Amino acid sequence: DAKTTQPNSMESNEEEPVHLPCNHSTISGTDYIHWYRQLPSQGPEYVIHGLTSNVNNRMASLAIAEDRKSSTLILHRATLRDAAVYYCILLSGGSNYKLTFGKGTLLTVNP
Amino acid sequence: KAGVTQTPRYLIKTRGQQVTLSCSPISGHRSVSWYQQTPGQGLQFLFEYFSETQRNKGNFPGRFSGRQFSNSRSEMNVSTLELGDSALYLCASSLVVGQPQHFGDGTRLSIL
Q1: Which residues of chain A are within 8 Å of residue B5 when distances are taken between CB atoms?
Q2: Is the pLDDT of residue A1 over 60?
Q3: Chain A, chain B: beta-carbon pairs less than 8 Å apart
Q4: N or C: where does chain B have the smaller number of CB atoms within 10 Å of the terminal CB?
Q5: Which among B45, B48, B106 is the nearest to A43, CB-wise?
Q6: Distance CA A92, CA B87 (A)
Q7: Residue A72 CB neighbour total at 10 angstroms
Q8: What's the CA gap between A100 and A75, in Å, rounded?
Q9: With contact defined as beta carbons under 8 Å apart, do A14 and A69 qualify?
Q10: Nearest CA of chain A to the CA of B38: how many Å?
Q11: For A12-21, b where at least 16 C-beta lie within 10 A, e where not — what string?
Q12: Do A44 and B43 touch (CB under 8 A)?
């Protein structure tokens, strides 16, 4: 499975944008980039996913580099509720949807 | 719309016992997956069910088993419990296989 690399931790201030990076230099052409997050004492929560083009939804934006070797999850205005561990995962297209989380990035949001 | 419901939330067992965990998916969701989450290993895939059939299986011993009922509800069973089975067990559902998954808050299993 293609591997992703994320910083262990990041810090942000409330109501400021947050850019969470992910490197995936061995990504294959059929791999989708998925982001999940996990708040304390809760199950993981799907955030967003994309293949080649940048994607937006009500929670976040996903910016994918042209060579697809890296991507950035963008939270436009961080809130205290966004404090969580964020996981960047590569999944092949099709029916094989077996999630495996690494250590992710622990995001701290300061009031 | 109710989310994924897992019961019980907490469970304490002793070595050698067996345990059954339950998962009710979001209404209309037919795919159910199970995961084990530990601080050391992170999130590990156990198995996935769709229409009462196991479609995928992770690298866990045969002591870990599961099933899905006709109403899409799923159960997971672990027999002959070991100390290393202490973990958060998460269930996730999706409309069909291959779609982003919605997780429950898990069952925290502690083995004494």
Answers
A1: none
A2: no
A3: 54
A4: N
A5: B106
A6: 27
A7: 16
A8: 23
A9: no
A10: 11
A11: beeeeebebe
A12: yes
What is each CA distance from B44 to A26, A70, A78, A86, A102, in whole angstroms?
21, 24, 29, 16, 9
Residue in the block written with tokens 């995001």: A107
The reply to whether residue B103 touches residue A100, judged by beta carbons under 8 angstroms, is no
Tokens 């989380």 found at: A101
pLDDT in tens, A39-72: 988 999 999 999 999 999 999 999 999 999 999 9
pLDDT at A29: 87
CB contact under 8 A, A95 and B97: yes
Kindly state the tokens that stand for A111: 């009031």
Residue ranges of E strands in chain A: 9-13, 18-23, 31-38, 45-50, 55-56, 61-64, 70-75, 84-92, 105-110
Q: Which residues of chain B have pLDDT under 70?
A: 1
Q: Which residues have CB under 8 Å from B24's CB, separation 6+?
A: B4, B5, B6, B73
Structure tokens at B56: 């995928």
- Give me the pLDDT at residue A94, please: 61
Place of tokens 């209404």: B27
Three-class SS state of A80: helix
Q: Closest Cα to residue B35, out of B69, B83, B76?
A: B76
